[in-house]
User: What shape does this take?
Amino acid sequence: MKNQIGAQQFQRVVALFLCFLLSPPAGFGVSDIDKTAAGETVGRITGVVSAGARNGTRVSLRDVVRTKDNLTTDKLGRMRVELHDGSILSIGSDTQLRIVSHDFLTGETLVDLVNGQLRSRVVKIRRSGKFEITTPHATITALGTDFFLDVSAPSTQIIVYSGVVVVAGREPTDSAARLVLDVAAGQNVVVDGKGISHLQLTPDDMEQQTIVQTTAPEEPETAIAENEPTPRKSSHVARNTLIGGLAVGAIVGAVFGLRGSKSQATTSSPSPPTTIPAH
Assistant: This one.
């Protein structure tokens, strides 16, 4: 009887332990994951040449980029930022920009390019979202496009490598200037205080030159794999595997415990007294 009570108590302890393991950790819910994935963090630095800075501090490979961060490069510097949605910003030298917002769930991205050179390789945007870059002279909107911007004090130059961008001037002084223009692959325009220039074909050597001006060496895949944090999903898999193993072990232990108690009860039970046959 005592052995049966002990086995029942053991099973209760195992059940309570499994309930504790299966309960979610305190302070870490779904809302926290969503906030981390689609909140302030917008991407990572995946390439640096010479010196680049984030909010005045020199950056390194795999540094996190957040909204409102001021990204700058020196006279020889170049930097590459990969956003959460897969879009890539290749930053040229003497450049200053700020990623105002980026939501990979809706495809909404806003970048403020103050000056310098920027190549944007934009993934295909959802119908409800948009990828937009503002400069002192224009607003450029892309829906899955590869294009280059060169911003100086007097003007903004737009060169489109693939796809189409929509260029809108900002407060042109000439009322006859074209306020909005679609610029397709192989074309370029210049926007200044007078508005948007006429479309021009982009020479091949100009395309290659501008691509080189913003190129940073590709980061080795091994470096990314070694430094990339372990996804939360894999930690849950390991946790569930551990729980499953403990559960199986507990069940097997309980079964063998019950069998052992039964055999012990059978072995320890007194044998009937020996009777002497009558003569």
In short: The domain at 39-227 is CATH 2.60.120.1440 (Jelly Rolls). Helices lie at 2-22, 30-38, 204-213, 221-227, 232-268. Residues 19-39, 220-239, 261-269 have pLDDT under 50 and may be disordered.
